[in-house]
Amino acid sequence: MKDKIYKYDTPMSIALLADLHDRPYDEIVKSLEKRRPEIICIAGDLISRVSPAEDSLAVTQTVNVLPFLRACAGIAPSFLSLGNHEWMLSGEDTALLSETGVTVLDNSFVRYKNAVIGGLSSAGVTAYRNYKKDMPERYPEWHYGDTPDKTEPEVSWLGDFCRQEGYKILLCHHPEYRDPYLNDLPIDLILCGHAHGGQIRLFGRGLFAPGQGILPKYTGGIHRNMIISKGLSNTGGMVPRLFNPREVVYIQPRK
Known about the structure:
Shape: globular
CATH topology: Purple Acid Phosphatase, chain A, domain 2
CATH architecture: 4-Layer Sandwich
Distance between the termini: 27 Å
Helix content: 10-25%
Strand order of the largest sheet: 1-16-2-3-4-5
Protein backbone atom coordinates (compact mmCIF):
# COMPACT_ATOMS: atom_id res chain seq x y z
CA MET A 1 0.00 0.00 0.00
CA LYS A 2 1.20 3.53 -0.71
CA ASP A 3 0.28 7.09 0.18
CA LYS A 4 -0.74 9.09 -2.89
CA ILE A 5 -0.57 12.85 -2.44
CA TYR A 6 -2.29 15.41 -4.66
CA LYS A 7 -2.23 19.20 -4.48
CA TYR A 8 -5.61 20.75 -5.18
CA ASP A 9 -7.57 23.96 -4.63
CA THR A 10 -9.23 22.87 -1.40
CA PRO A 11 -9.52 24.81 1.87
CA MET A 12 -8.47 21.82 4.00
CA SER A 13 -6.40 18.67 3.91
CA ILE A 14 -8.43 15.57 3.06
CA ALA A 15 -7.81 11.83 3.22
CA LEU A 16 -9.81 9.92 0.58
CA LEU A 17 -10.48 6.25 1.36
CA ALA A 18 -12.54 3.82 -0.70
CA ASP A 19 -13.15 0.11 -1.24
CA LEU A 20 -12.01 -1.39 2.05
CA HIS A 21 -14.26 -4.41 1.40
CA ASP A 22 -13.98 -5.52 5.04
CA ARG A 23 -10.23 -6.17 4.77
CA PRO A 24 -7.68 -5.53 7.57
CA TYR A 25 -6.97 -1.85 8.11
CA ASP A 26 -3.93 -1.46 10.42
CA GLU A 27 -1.73 -0.05 7.63
CA ILE A 28 -4.39 2.48 6.74
CA VAL A 29 -4.74 3.73 10.30
CA LYS A 30 -0.96 4.07 10.67
CA SER A 31 -0.88 6.21 7.53
CA LEU A 32 -3.75 8.40 8.78
CA GLU A 33 -2.10 8.85 12.18
CA LYS A 34 1.12 9.91 10.48
CA ARG A 35 -0.44 12.33 7.98
CA ARG A 36 -3.22 13.72 10.23
CA PRO A 37 -5.63 15.09 7.58
CA GLU A 38 -8.21 17.63 8.70
CA ILE A 39 -11.06 15.41 7.48
CA ILE A 40 -11.42 11.83 6.27
CA CYS A 41 -13.78 11.11 3.38
CA ILE A 42 -14.77 7.47 2.82
CA ALA A 43 -16.31 7.01 -0.62
CA GLY A 44 -18.14 3.71 -0.18
CA ASP A 45 -17.70 -0.05 -0.37
CA LEU A 46 -16.64 -0.79 3.19
CA ILE A 47 -18.63 -4.02 2.96
CA SER A 48 -18.01 -7.03 0.74
CA ARG A 49 -20.56 -9.63 -0.41
CA VAL A 50 -22.97 -9.42 2.52
CA SER A 51 -26.63 -10.29 1.95
CA PRO A 52 -29.76 -9.39 3.92
CA ALA A 53 -30.57 -11.84 6.69
CA GLU A 54 -33.64 -12.06 8.89
CA ASP A 55 -31.64 -12.89 12.01
CA SER A 56 -28.80 -10.34 11.80
CA LEU A 57 -27.99 -6.90 10.47
CA ALA A 58 -25.69 -6.63 7.46
CA VAL A 59 -23.07 -4.63 9.36
CA THR A 60 -22.87 -7.23 12.14
CA GLN A 61 -21.88 -9.81 9.51
CA THR A 62 -18.65 -7.89 8.87
CA VAL A 63 -15.39 -8.11 10.83
CA ASN A 64 -13.50 -4.88 10.20
CA VAL A 65 -16.07 -2.25 9.22
CA LEU A 66 -17.12 -0.89 12.61
CA PRO A 67 -13.65 -0.88 14.24
CA PHE A 68 -12.20 0.72 11.10
CA LEU A 69 -14.75 3.53 11.26
CA ARG A 70 -14.13 4.04 14.99
CA ALA A 71 -10.42 4.35 14.25
CA CYS A 72 -11.04 6.93 11.52
CA ALA A 73 -13.37 8.98 13.73
CA GLY A 74 -10.71 8.97 16.44
CA ILE A 75 -8.22 10.60 14.09
CA ALA A 76 -10.29 13.28 12.32
CA PRO A 77 -13.92 14.18 11.51
CA SER A 78 -14.96 11.43 9.10
CA PHE A 79 -17.67 11.27 6.46
CA LEU A 80 -19.02 8.19 4.69
CA SER A 81 -21.08 7.73 1.51
CA LEU A 82 -22.69 4.46 0.42
CA GLY A 83 -21.34 2.37 -2.46
CA ASN A 84 -22.83 -0.53 -4.38
CA HIS A 85 -21.70 -3.04 -1.74
CA GLU A 86 -23.82 -1.18 0.82
CA TRP A 87 -27.00 -1.91 -1.17
CA MET A 88 -28.59 -3.98 1.61
CA LEU A 89 -28.12 -1.63 4.56
CA SER A 90 -31.18 -1.02 6.71
CA GLY A 91 -31.90 1.96 8.92
CA GLU A 92 -30.57 -0.05 11.85
CA ASP A 93 -27.35 -0.72 9.92
CA THR A 94 -26.76 2.95 9.20
CA ALA A 95 -27.47 3.76 12.85
CA LEU A 96 -24.68 1.34 13.83
CA LEU A 97 -22.35 3.04 11.35
CA SER A 98 -23.22 6.45 12.81
CA GLU A 99 -22.56 5.24 16.35
CA THR A 100 -18.88 4.89 15.45
CA GLY A 101 -18.66 8.69 15.26
CA VAL A 102 -18.56 8.81 11.47
CA THR A 103 -21.12 11.00 9.67
CA VAL A 104 -23.11 8.85 7.22
CA LEU A 105 -24.11 10.83 4.13
CA ASP A 106 -26.92 8.92 2.43
CA ASN A 107 -28.14 11.27 -0.32
CA SER A 108 -27.64 14.07 2.16
CA PHE A 109 -25.17 16.75 3.14
CA VAL A 110 -23.78 18.53 6.20
CA ARG A 111 -21.78 21.67 6.80
CA TYR A 112 -18.25 21.43 8.14
CA LYS A 113 -16.60 24.79 8.83
CA ASN A 114 -16.47 26.61 5.47
CA ALA A 115 -17.34 23.52 3.44
CA VAL A 116 -20.50 21.61 2.57
CA ILE A 117 -19.95 17.85 2.35
CA GLY A 118 -22.48 15.59 0.61
CA GLY A 119 -22.76 11.90 -0.16
CA LEU A 120 -24.45 10.49 -3.27
CA SER A 121 -25.52 6.89 -2.62
CA SER A 122 -25.09 4.17 -5.22
CA ALA A 123 -28.02 3.47 -7.53
CA GLY A 124 -28.08 -0.05 -6.08
CA VAL A 125 -28.98 1.37 -2.67
CA THR A 126 -31.99 3.14 -4.18
CA ALA A 127 -33.00 0.08 -6.23
CA TYR A 128 -33.08 -2.21 -3.20
CA ARG A 129 -35.06 0.27 -1.11
CA ASN A 130 -37.64 0.55 -3.89
CA TYR A 131 -37.82 -3.24 -4.14
CA LYS A 132 -38.37 -3.58 -0.39
CA LYS A 133 -41.14 -0.99 -0.56
CA ASP A 134 -42.89 -2.54 -3.55
CA MET A 135 -42.45 -6.24 -2.68
CA PRO A 136 -41.80 -6.49 1.07
CA GLU A 137 -42.66 -10.18 1.26
CA ARG A 138 -39.90 -11.07 -1.24
CA TYR A 139 -37.14 -8.60 -0.58
CA PRO A 140 -34.77 -11.01 1.28
CA GLU A 141 -34.51 -12.95 -2.03
CA TRP A 142 -33.24 -9.90 -3.95
CA HIS A 143 -29.57 -9.51 -4.79
CA TYR A 144 -27.74 -6.50 -6.17
CA GLY A 145 -28.08 -6.48 -9.97
CA ASP A 146 -31.39 -8.37 -10.03
CA THR A 147 -33.45 -5.43 -11.25
CA PRO A 148 -34.20 -5.79 -14.98
CA ASP A 149 -34.23 -2.08 -15.76
CA LYS A 150 -31.30 0.33 -15.55
CA THR A 151 -31.18 1.87 -12.10
CA GLU A 152 -30.12 5.45 -11.46
CA PRO A 153 -28.88 7.30 -8.40
CA GLU A 154 -31.23 9.62 -6.52
CA VAL A 155 -30.03 13.06 -7.61
CA SER A 156 -33.03 15.28 -6.74
CA TRP A 157 -31.43 16.47 -3.49
CA LEU A 158 -28.33 17.78 -5.29
CA GLY A 159 -30.08 21.02 -6.23
CA ASP A 160 -30.36 21.99 -2.57
CA PHE A 161 -26.77 20.86 -1.98
CA CYS A 162 -25.49 23.04 -4.82
CA ARG A 163 -27.37 26.10 -3.57
CA GLN A 164 -25.46 26.08 -0.30
CA GLU A 165 -22.76 28.65 0.27
CA GLY A 166 -19.26 27.34 0.76
CA TYR A 167 -16.80 24.91 -0.78
CA LYS A 168 -18.78 21.89 -1.96
CA ILE A 169 -17.33 18.38 -1.62
CA LEU A 170 -19.34 15.42 -2.90
CA LEU A 171 -18.53 11.83 -1.98
CA CYS A 172 -19.68 9.68 -4.89
CA HIS A 173 -18.50 6.08 -5.00
CA HIS A 174 -18.96 5.78 -8.79
CA PRO A 175 -16.71 7.96 -11.00
CA GLU A 176 -18.87 7.03 -14.00
CA TYR A 177 -21.70 9.08 -12.43
CA ARG A 178 -19.80 12.33 -12.97
CA ASP A 179 -20.43 12.84 -16.69
CA PRO A 180 -24.16 11.96 -16.91
CA TYR A 181 -25.34 13.33 -13.55
CA LEU A 182 -22.85 15.83 -12.11
CA ASN A 183 -21.00 17.49 -14.99
CA ASP A 184 -23.05 20.69 -15.08
CA LEU A 185 -23.36 21.15 -11.31
CA PRO A 186 -21.27 23.71 -9.37
CA ILE A 187 -19.44 21.15 -7.24
CA ASP A 188 -15.88 22.04 -6.29
CA LEU A 189 -14.60 18.53 -5.61
CA ILE A 190 -16.00 15.04 -6.28
CA LEU A 191 -14.35 12.13 -4.44
CA CYS A 192 -14.74 8.61 -5.84
CA GLY A 193 -13.53 5.01 -5.74
CA HIS A 194 -15.16 1.86 -7.21
CA ALA A 195 -12.83 1.31 -10.18
CA HIS A 196 -10.03 -0.33 -8.12
CA GLY A 197 -7.54 1.39 -10.40
CA GLY A 198 -8.71 -0.75 -13.29
CA GLN A 199 -7.60 -3.87 -11.35
CA ILE A 200 -4.67 -4.58 -13.72
CA ARG A 201 -2.65 -1.55 -14.87
CA LEU A 202 -0.45 -1.56 -17.96
CA PHE A 203 1.32 1.51 -19.37
CA GLY A 204 -0.56 3.72 -16.90
CA ARG A 205 -4.00 2.44 -17.92
CA GLY A 206 -6.45 0.27 -16.02
CA LEU A 207 -7.86 -2.66 -17.96
CA PHE A 208 -11.38 -2.98 -16.53
CA ALA A 209 -13.74 -1.21 -14.16
CA PRO A 210 -17.35 -2.01 -13.20
CA GLY A 211 -19.74 0.41 -14.85
CA GLN A 212 -17.13 1.37 -17.45
CA GLY A 213 -15.97 -1.90 -18.97
CA ILE A 214 -12.71 -2.51 -20.83
CA LEU A 215 -10.07 0.27 -20.88
CA PRO A 216 -12.13 2.54 -18.60
CA LYS A 217 -11.73 6.30 -18.66
CA TYR A 218 -11.84 6.90 -14.90
CA THR A 219 -9.75 4.61 -12.69
CA GLY A 220 -7.64 6.92 -10.54
CA GLY A 221 -6.05 10.35 -10.26
CA ILE A 222 -7.43 13.83 -10.94
CA HIS A 223 -9.99 14.45 -13.67
CA ARG A 224 -10.87 18.14 -13.55
CA ASN A 225 -13.00 18.43 -10.39
CA MET A 226 -12.94 14.69 -9.60
CA ILE A 227 -10.32 12.71 -7.68
CA ILE A 228 -10.50 8.91 -7.72
CA SER A 229 -8.96 6.50 -5.24
CA LYS A 230 -7.58 3.23 -6.60
CA GLY A 231 -8.86 1.55 -3.45
CA LEU A 232 -7.75 -0.09 -0.22
CA SER A 233 -8.18 -3.79 -0.99
CA ASN A 234 -7.10 -6.36 -3.54
CA THR A 235 -10.55 -7.76 -4.18
CA GLY A 236 -11.62 -8.00 -7.79
CA GLY A 237 -13.48 -11.27 -8.00
CA MET A 238 -11.50 -13.73 -10.10
CA VAL A 239 -9.27 -10.99 -11.55
CA PRO A 240 -6.03 -10.37 -9.60
CA ARG A 241 -4.78 -6.89 -8.84
CA LEU A 242 -1.48 -6.40 -10.72
CA PHE A 243 0.92 -3.42 -11.10
CA ASN A 244 -1.67 -1.48 -9.14
CA PRO A 245 -0.81 -0.91 -5.46
CA ARG A 246 -3.53 -0.13 -2.96
CA GLU A 247 -3.53 3.50 -1.89
CA VAL A 248 -4.56 6.05 0.70
CA VAL A 249 -5.14 9.33 -1.12
CA TYR A 250 -4.25 12.64 0.51
CA ILE A 251 -5.45 15.92 -0.96
CA GLN A 252 -3.52 18.92 0.26
CA PRO A 253 -4.32 22.61 -0.31
CA ARG A 254 -2.13 24.43 -2.75
CA LYS A 255 0.00 26.98 -0.95
